[in-house]
Design goal:
The complex is a heterodimer of chains A (about 425) and B (about 475). Chain A has about 425 residues and is α/β, with parallel strands linked by helices. Chain A has 14 helices and 15 strands. Chain A has helices spanning about 10-20, 25, 45-55, 75-85, 85-90, 100-120, 130-145, 160-170, 200-210, 230-235, 295-300, 310-350, 370-380, 405-415, and strands spanning about 65, 120-125, 150, 175, 185-190, 215-220, 235-240, 255-260, 275-280, 285-290, 355, 365, 385, 390, 395-400. Chain B has helices at about 40-50, 75-80, 85, 100-115, 125-145, 160-170, 185-190, 215-225, 245-250, 255-260, 315-330, 335-350, 380-390, 415-435, 440, 455-460; strands at about 120, 150-155, 170-175, 195-205, 230, 250-255, 275, 290-295, 295-300, 370, 395, 405-410. In chain B, the strands form three sheets. Chain B has a seven-stranded mixed β-sheet, with helices on both faces. In chain B, strands 10-12-11 form a three-stranded antiparallel β-sheet, with helices on one face.
Chain lengths: ~425, ~475
């Protein structure tokens, strides 16, 4: 397939304007020249579709009872239609606000939604994913407190912990076991990786007594429709993964990191921020603002090196939240909660042990009476991905509004064989 | 202007009603959710209207320098959305995700061939996360060799992410000035290079759109001093099938998949990062790696030297599907992309040379930089805004920082000669207007809203909508 419009005549006319006789002469400076390029022959669109489709068919998609950082919520049809519009899809970072009011307003609405849901004052326009958003929050805390200690509460998603550890190693922060005068931040995920809903008040107080920041991490933010906001509890920073808001699971990415802070940390935020302003006639409009924090101006003194973000996915989440509205979000959260509790109850009656010590939202841990590998394999036979094996025959199970009562019955019958 | 929050309550229901409240302790429950339920068609109209207030490659020529705004083939969107990819849960065992692992593996193989690097990781989310990875690898590599190297050399024409990344990892940045041919000044480089330098970070072609003429000497000096050579591959669209960064002497590099490999820019992302290394650095790449064992693809977490993990899962997988699709479309013809990208840039440069100040008068690569300094201060911003009135997106402006009143123009290979002719004509008209009717240009663009007040935005912060009650 070829996406170049030039005819042979165009090329020769253009070469003569440039003063070159061949295309090869034009790039003669680019050395060393490669001797060979071992790539396959080009494919036509039809051949390409057939080939890539054949790869997609080697994957198994199932009825999912698994979360662990990626959630199978229903995605309303309208989202794809709107997000696919070329005006959004093929634009870039709104450096020229007058040619980018659409994307800028969307991001302003996204920031507003994130603030409303988390109970925080200020949000940025998105980060890469939940894990790197958490790492950016740790860096923000270190810049604010001039300290290097990072305390992590039990129950953080282990993948997030690995990413945090990688960032800490590279940027000379240390993950510690104590909260003291060297602590930059206290990190806690709720609901945690095992589903436990935690009351963070004690940890928040302890962080603040030591002049450290408290960072609340959220894995499935549909939970915010029913849970008391981290802002109300007193969190200084809220970060998380926005995939649950209408973004396909897509084997783990691209997803949507978000970060929101209390007012006093506004200028420490990483990444893009959109603000409302006026034009020379007094008309309202939007621009990228507080750019003096960013790498392209501040270079080595920037708050972060981040440049590209996840705008199209922030658009997806914004449309998702607009479409569901108040009652829709509450319905999703309540249905996810009730389905998970129903399955939990049925599993207990079928010989599984309950493990969670706290109330849970839509994920929970059970200990299987049989080998967990066997349980997972039995479920897969019935086209059900039944949960994440977390060791010691324990399964991390998740429900969303998509898991019907019938699916739950199929799950139970598969595990009670 | 109307925000989504300004619409009123409707009776629309998108989800099955779930009246039963949850059974949680009161101190954990949310008290209010200040949103309303908006009718579906109103939402469609709201966001359709917003889309119409936005320039994209699909609506306008978008010559934003350094960003490679080329046509995004639509079929790649369809392919990334195939249910076998989009509905695939990342916790599925590798045995049930063989197609996905094959996508990653094949893309790695293609990128190895194009760049000459020995191994790739596709886990980073974007170019700047690749840079972070590169600097982390350098830090670990030298720590293991017990070498205390504290500096990273970066030319003054570099993207801001380069020094920002170096600083994140506590390295000291040594900035090398640009010589009068637009190269990194070799004499200044000779003074700066030494046993305390960890990395030499170079964008090639550089952000002036020029091929680094001293690259071979720089590489030799870096190697003599034991420093690693990092290639910021943001400008790889000039080199596909022509020259390989590994052959140029680079030890590690990154590619921006949303630029060179045409995965859409999406209003600012998601992008995709691909990070390549020579074999001696392969063990430091993030885990998991993907291995082919007896015709099966498996995840390999068993890498003791790895710097760790950068992403919740395996990177921006949906972007990787698009990039592989793009590469398969081009296959062994890929050098045409760069040949025509370079031709388009040089052609447009030739058309505009006589109208502007040209800071470095050399043949350019895939982009070029003009200066509007002869038209007075702030001419560049005025020209950029006036370009919008003529229906084009503006080029990158005021970058690189070393060129006064800079306009950085990257046409890409997918624009026709006619479009370039038209764009050149518009710029020539604007220059005429600058002389004849300067007020017209100062007040551009003549759109609604018109030129927006960025100073006010930063001073009187309004970063979100607030509910009326509070």
């Amino acid at each position: 397939m070829n996406f170049i419009p030039h005819t042979k005549e165009d090329i020769s006319k253009m070469l003569s304007v440039v003063g070159c006789s061949t295309l090869d002469e034009l790039v003669s400076e680019f050395k060393p020249r490669l001797s060979e390029l071992k790539l396959d022959s080009p494919l036509s669109e039809m051949e390409l579709v057939s080939y890539i489709t054949s790869l997609s068919e080697k994957n198994s998609t199932m009825k999912y009872f698994a979360g662990g950082g990626s959630y199978d919520h229903y995605i309303p049809s309208v989202i794809n239609h709107l997000v696919s519009r070329g005006e959004f899809l093929t634009s870039y970072t709104p450096y020229q606000p007058e040619a980018s009011q659409g994307v800028l307003q969307v991001l302003y609405e996204f920031q507003s939604f994130i603030c409303l849901l988390t109970g925080m004052d200020v949000s940025n326009a998105s980060l890469y994913d939940g894990a790197s958003a958490l790492a950016e929050a740790a860096l923000l805390s270190s810049a604010h407190t001039k300290r290097k200690g990072v305390f992590v509460d039990d129950g953080l998603n282990p993948e997030y912990l690995k990413v945090l550890q990688t960032y800490c190693d590279g940027t000379e922060l240390t993950i510690t076991n104590t909260i003291d005068e060297n602590t930059a931040c206290v990190i806690s995920q709720t609901p945690d990786f095992y589903g436990n809903i935690k009351n963070p008040q004690g940890l928040i107080d302890k962080a603040h007594q030591n002049n450290a920041l408290f960072i609340n991490c959220i894995s499935d933010p549909t939970s915010l429709a029913i849970l008391k906001t981290p802002g109300e509890f007193g969190a200084d920073v809220v970060v998380g993964e926005g995939q649950a808001f209408g973004i396909p699971k897509s084997f783990g990415g691209p997803y949507l990191g978000f970060i929101a802070v209390k007012q006093f940390l506004t200028k420490k935020l990483p990444g893009r921020i959109v603000g409302m302003t006026t034009d020379n006639q007094g008309n309202e409009g939007f621009v990228l603002t507080l750019q003096a924090r960013e790498q392209f101006i501040r270079r080595e003194r920037a708050t972060s090196n981040i440049t590209t973000n996840q705008t199209l996915l922030a658009l997806t989440a914004t449309i998702y939240l607009a479409l569901l509205g108040k009652s829709g979000l509450q319905n999703v959260a309540r249905a996810s909660y009730h389905r998970a509790h129903l399955l939990h109850e049925k599993l207990r009656k079928n010989g599984f042990d309950a493990i969670n010590t706290n109330p849970f939202y839509n994920e929970f841990i059970v200990k299987s009476p049989k080998l967990s590998e066997k349980i997972i394999a039995d479920l897969m036979e019935c086209n059900i991905f039944g949960g994440i094996d977390v060791g010691d025959n324990k399964l991390l199970v998740c429900c969303t509004e998509k898991n019907s009562l019938q699916d739950i019955d199929s799950y139970i019958s598969a595990v009670s064989k | 202007m109307k925000l989504i929050f300004d619409y009123t309550q409707s009776n629309t229901k998108h989800t099955p009603s779930q009246e039963k409240d949850v059974d949680l302790p009161e101190d954990l429950k949310r008290r209010s959710l200040p949103l309303c339920d908006v009718n579906e068609i109103q939402i469609i109209r709201h966001y359709t209207e917003l889309s119409r207030k936005n320039y994209g490659i699909d609506t306008n020529f978008y010559p934003l320098g350094s960003c490679t705004m080329k046509y995004n083939p639509r079929v790649n969107e369809d392919l990334a959305k195939l249910p076998g990819f989009s509905d695939l849960h990342p916790h599925m065992p590798a045995s049930h995700a063989q197609g996905a692992l094959q996508v990653i593996w094949e893309l790695e193989e293609n990128l190895k061939e194009i760049t000459g690097m020995d191994a790739f990781s596709l886990q980073p989310s974007a170019g700047s996360q690749c840079e972070l990875l590169g600097v982390m690898i350098a830090k670990k590599y030298f720590a293991e060799k017990n070498q205390n190297r504290t500096k990273i050399i970066i030319p003054d024409s570099a993207h801001g992410t380069n020094p920002a990344t170096a600083a994140m990892c506590k390295f000291q940045t040594v900035t090398i000035p640009t010589d009068d041919r637009g190269n990194m000044d070799i004499n200044e480089f000779k003074k700066a290079i030494g046993p305390d330098v960890a990395v030499v970070m170079i964008t090639n072609p550089n952000t002036l759109g020029l091929y680094e003429e001293n690259l071979s000497k720089i590489k030799d000096l870096a190697k003599e001093n034991g420093a690693l050579m990092y290639c910021d591959g943001a400008n790889m669209n000039a080199l596909l099938g022509i020259s390989k960064p590994a052959d140029q002497g680079f030890d590690m590099m990154h590619l921006n998949l949303h630029k060179t490999f045409s995965t859409p820019h999406g209003g600012g992302g998601p992008g995709g990062g691909a990070f390549g290394v020579r074999s001696f650095l392969e063990d430091y790449l993030p885990v998991p790696r993907i291995k082919k064992e007896n015709e099966q693809f498996v995840f390999d977490y068993n890498k003791e030297k790895s710097v760790g993990k950068l992403h919740s899962f395996y990177g921006n997988f949906g972007i990787l599907v698009r990039a592989l699709s793009y590469l398969k479309s081009w296959g062994s013809d890929i050098q045409k992309v760069s040949q025509i990208a370079v031709l388009n840039a040089n052609y447009l440069f030739s058309l505009l040379k006589e109208d502007f100040d040209v800071p470095y008068d050399r043949r350019c690569a895939h982009e070029f930089v003009l200066s509007a300094k002869n038209f007075g201060e702030k001419s560049t911003i005025n020209i950029a805004k006036r370009i919008i009135d003529y229906g084009f997106h503006a080029p990158t402006i005021y970058f690189p920082l070393i060129v006064k009143e800079a306009l950085m123009i990257e046409p890409t290979e997918t624009e026709s000669k006619d479009t370039l002719d038209e764009f050149a004509k518009v710029l020539k008209t604007i220059i005429k207007e600058l002389r004849e009717d300067p007020e017209l240009i100062k007040n551009a663009p003549h759109t609604t809203p018109g030129r927006l007040d960025e100073v006010k935005a930063a001073r009187q912060l309004n970063l979100r909508w607030m509910p009326k009650e509070s």
